[in-house]
Amino acid sequence: MLCKKKWTPNVPGDHWVLLAKESVIDAPKSKSADSGPVFTRLRSPCTGEAALYLLGSNAGQIYEVKAFNEEYHSWFIGQVVQHDGRLMLVTPMDPLFLVLPYLSKAEQKGKFQPIDQVVKDEDFPCYSSLLQCQRISQSLHHVTEEKEIGSQKFYKYSKDKTMMWLKKKVDQTVSALKKMSISVGGGVQSATFIRNTTSDITEEDYIRYAHGLVSDYLEENMSHEFLKYLKLPELTSPVAEPPQKKRKVSDTLVTAAEDYTKFNSTEAKEKKPSGKMTSAQKALAKVDKTGMKNISSFFGPKTKSAK
Fold first, then answer.
1. CA distance 107 to 89
2. What is the Cα–Cα distance from 205 to 198, expressed in whole angstroms?
3. Most exposed among 25, 61, 232, 298, judged by the fewest C-beta atoms under 10 Å?
């Protein structure tokens, strides 16, 4: 469904359009003001820059927010023209990707720590709300070693577990790609025009494509490590095509049917007269030309008569 949400409540008339399932924006059963749904800015796990996310009701699910933007685009909302013509899309994501960079960075200390001491960011205080998401507490064991002392749990990043968890993500993505007949591999460039047959796509094509999709949520270093873990061969650089040969300018004189210009370069070549005469030329040759002037004499300069 389409719904409107204020981008900045303090700025009147500043709205944008959101496309989401109705269940995403359902009001929570709890009457608490912080129970959501709430838009928040967190650090992108791929770029490290600020990105917009949506915390579902009671922090039950995290959604990434994408913007579809076209130049010179606006919305008509009631009797008002909304200048921000973007269309916001929300899609669910695994919140473990958002905490993975912090766990990986904390590995340098080499000790078990409470999760709230590992995942904290002075520039993004909303991570405290993110940690309330049940999916994070339920899935931390996929990427960490755990220790429980009393009623408190302590965590330490595990590279081996993380690679195995990411491999499962790739396997699930490959299955979805095959089920939906998505074009992958080298032929994906022409997928708009010609759909590849199944025989044209190898298993390596599917895995490499899925790795690229999962890498959109990983830091660059981790993406490279994961590529080695998948044991994918390095891509060879495409062979450079030879430059196209230039057409040589013809040395022969190009003339039109009526011979208008008689040249196609700065130095025109003289055309040798044909040895054969046409019937009109033969008839003209038989005419008595005694007393006839050459036609060019009529266009020459006039001679001054002596006084």
1. 34
2. 11
3. 298
Rounded-to-integer distance, Cα 80 and Cα 31, Å = 32
Closest C-alpha among 26, 155, 17 to residue 96 = 155
Q: Where are the alpha helices (DSSP H) in the chain?
A: 96-106, 115-118, 127-130, 134-139, 159-179, 203-214, 220-229, 279-285
Q: For strand 80-82 and strand 87-93, is the pairing parallel, antiparallel, or unpaired?
A: unpaired
The C-alpha atoms of residue 226 and residue 163 are separated, in whole angstroms, by 6
Tell which phi-psi region holds residue 241, choosing left (phi > 0), alpha (psi between -120 and 50) or beta.
Answer: beta
pTM of the model as a whole: 0.65
Contact between 102 and 73 (Cβ < 8 Å): no
According to the model, what pLDDT value does residue 255 have? 40
Return the closest-CA partner of residue 39 out of 128, 123, 125, 126.
Answer: 126
Mean pLDDT for the stretch of residues 135-150:
91
CB atoms within 10 A of CB 101: 20
The tokens of 168 are what?
């499962």
